[in-house]
Amino acid sequence: MSGTEILRLEAVDVVRSGRRILTGIDLAIRSGEHWALIGANGAGKSTMLSMCGAEQHPTRGSVTVLGHQLGRVEIRKLRESIGHVNPRLQIQPRLTLTQVVLTGATGTASLMNRWEPDDALIARAGELIELLGLGAKRDVVWATMSQGERGRALIARALLNDPPLLLLDEPSTGLDVAAREQLLETLDHLHHTHPDLATVLVTHHMEELPESTTHAALIKDGRLTAQGPATDVLTTERVSDAFDHAIRIDYADGRWQARAGRAVLLA
Asked: 161 CB contacts (<8 Å, ≥6 apart)?
């Protein structure tokens, strides 16, 4: 794609307590691209996503988010321009759906004391609630919402400030099959209605990728082993190598499926 560059990681290394977590990461993401970051547990996905979200600095190398290099920009201000969907976020259980979405303005899990949203922000929250098919639930409290409704609410929350970059950290966590499929339909609809939005979705399940996924990166032991157009990267050979296990990848009707593949030869 030829959109504006949204994110760039160059020669990024991350070392924590003497342990190398990421090594030599190079990645560029442009507006309108929808990336999947895939790897086994412990491969470095979460650490890499934290770089994309301006939540951690690299030990070596550079990370540029929305044209600003980490270490040379006010981090708090930059984070306001990044939407982050984390299903493990501990939302205050008595908040209504509308209130949950409005917490996206402050980046908190509850409404801040003495903070009042203006009419424009309330209207924006209402638009997003309708966009994500939750109009009938706007006054329902978080504690009584289904996991699927919570997932869509967190997406609306992340979009409140109209960010050019949306990060989704295993958004299908805890969802049953029906709720997962509804969430993926929501993401496809979101990508269609926001053509300039760049997204990065972290998962280790191929079935959790929406049809609108355009690019993919495979990470193994802190290194990117493949990246590029999703249909070129998510192949039997490359995924099997990334997971150190024979995995057969099937692609049909815009969706991927993984299963054990005894005939796969690992590199």
From this structure: 80, 81, 83, 104, 105
The structural domains of the chain, ordered by start, are 1-81+164-267 (3.40.50.300), 87-162 (no CATH)
Query: Which of the 8 DSSP states describes residue 243?
Result: H
Chain segment 111-168, per-residue pLDDT in tens = 888 888 899 999 999 999 999 999 999 999 999 999 999 999 999 999 999 999 999 9
The parts of the chain modelled with pLDDT lower than 50 are 1, 264-267
User: Nearest to residue 217, comparing CAs of 195, 240, 242?
Assistant: 242
Closest CA to 235 of 262, 254, 257, 213: 257
pTM: 0.91
Contact call for residues 238 and 248 (beta carbons, < 8 A): no
Identify the burial level of 8 via C-beta atoms within 10 angstroms of its C-beta, where 0-12 means exposed, 13-18 middle and 19 or more buried.
middle
β-bridge partners, 177: none
Please, are residues 121 and 143 in contact by the beta-carbon 8 Å criterion? no
Q: Phi then psi for 217, rounded to 5 degrees?
A: -135, 135
Q: Please say whether the beta carbons of 231 and 181 come within 8 A.
A: no
Q: What is the DSSP string of 90-155?
A: ---TT-BHHHHHHGGGTT-SSPPTT----HHHHHHHHHHHHHTT-GGGTT-BGGGS-HHHHHHHHH
The Cα-based distances of 78 to 70, 150, 160 in angstroms read 9, 26, 15
Q: Which two tokens stand for residue 159?
A: 């979009």
